[in-house]
Amino acid sequence: METDAETAAKRLLGCELVHEVEGHRLRVRIVETEAYDEADPASHTHRGRTARNDAMFLSAGHAYVYLIHGLHHCMNVVAGFEGHGCGVLIRAAEPLEGLAEMERRRGRGGAELTNGPGKLCQAMGITLPMREHDLGEPPLILIRRSPVDQDQIVVTRRVGIAKNADAPRRFYLRGDPWVPRPWTT
DNA sequence: GAAAAGATCTTCT
DNA sequence: GAAGATCTTTTCC
To answer: Does residue A2 carry a pLDDT above 90?
Structure first.
């Protein structure tokens, strides 16, 4: 399971994320990811291990959740071996199960449900306490799927960052309607 | 110890 | 298309 961040980011495309909360089963399929690791100036782990990014240094398959701009959550899947700060940001997903509950949590529906890191976490009910959670255990589980075809994956520069912005480390499924529109090529 | 920026989203013009 | 919301972490006196 342990790999470099870019390989993990590509492998996560098409995988499913399930969160069982308050009697609801929320299930999505990952369609857009970004890779981050210690050698990357844009990564939270670039300046070493701290109290905030500690989860990123756990073994592969853990969750790293953080608060951005004081009001939105973002979720990463840790990719590397214990002690290596690399992981994958989940940027967008396709809702598969629990649509009504996600719409209730978001206060919106349709394409606005899960087409962004903050929106996805709000729809899925993923918050700070899920930091350092093992994604092999309930209530939040990552379901591995066989990797999608290489020619289904589009690689571009990442979104919304200032440092190392030109690095081609963002991956999404070609033509998928749940990938945010302006970036879909 | 103080100030600024940040892997974002929503609302208003 | 631009700015506001809102708070943690980092950086610079």
So the answer is: no
pLDDT in tens, A120-138: 999 999 999 999 999 999 9
Domain ranges of chain A: 5-183
The bases of strand C with some atom under 7 A from any protein CB are 5-11
CATH class for domain A5-183?
Answer: alpha beta
CA dihedral A88, A89, A94, A95 (to 10 degrees): 110
Q: For residue A124, is it left (φ>0), alpha (ψ between -120 and 50) or beta?
A: alpha
Cross-strand bridge partners of residue A65: A75
Distance CA A136, CA A185 (A): 34
* Interatomic CA distance for residues A25 and A138, integer angstroms: 11
Residue A101 corresponds to which tokens in the numbers above?
Answer: 């509950």
pLDDT tens digits, residue range A72-85?
A: 999 999 999 999 99
Q: What is the mean pLDDT of chain A?
A: 95
The nucleotides of chain B lying under 7 Å from a protein CB are 5-10
A45 CB below 7 A from strand C atoms: no
